[in-house]
Amino acid sequence: MSQALKLALAPLLLAQAVHTRWRLPRLPEADGPREGALGAGPERLSLIIVGDSSAAGVGVSSQHEALAGQLAAALSARLPSHRLQWQLCARTGVTTAQAIDLLAEAKPADVAVVVSGVNDVVAQVRPALALKHREQLLCALQHRCGVRHVVMTPVPPMHRFAGLPLPLRWVAGRDADALGRALADWAVGRAGVSHPPFDLPMDDPRLLARDGFHPSALLYQHWGAALADHIAGIIGRVTPANGGEAAQHRPQVG
Prior knowledge:
The chain has 254 residues and is of the alpha/beta class. The chain has one domain (3-243): SGNH hydrolase (Rossmann fold), CATH 3.40.50. Helix content is 41%, strand content 15%.
């Protein structure tokens, strides 16, 4: 979208943004443990999910229904030879830059799933700067947590967020699409990074929570399954970074 058009719409967009923030219900983060273990196989795999409100499970009542719980359960089912350890580092409202601070007490992990981008759009972070923050988050995951592969989830299609009025929804969707394209280009050919497509049918109203902005339990289920398929497909190329017993059973991840 041209800056001239954005400037022309700025007073209306600002008014809509303020009204939307006041009008939308403030849904809490999902309750429940933010780490756990599943499976009893001889192989070891550790997973960290880091990000914003969608990573934190806003829209559902428990972490079991949220992305972390759905992803962990689906991934464990796809990898019966593995014992999966998972942890969640997420907070409502964080941008990609702020997500780095969430790793302060994170444990070592083999694979990371990054859920961010919506708040970069909301905060009007330019794509070039948002990618710089992605690079910094990637480095933090690799150097602080020993992560060998990072799955960068796509920026969701914000033009489908029914909780946003028009034209704010349309403008947010255009900005999200621009950031998403930049992120996809950035991830191409980058070692230890993947960027799976967002192929979920967002035209189904059942996929959004009652605020029309966050995922519902059904969307978390579909999303967790899609990410589990993606991660299971790359596990043969990932090497665990947590050492110890895992060193005797090292799957390869690239």
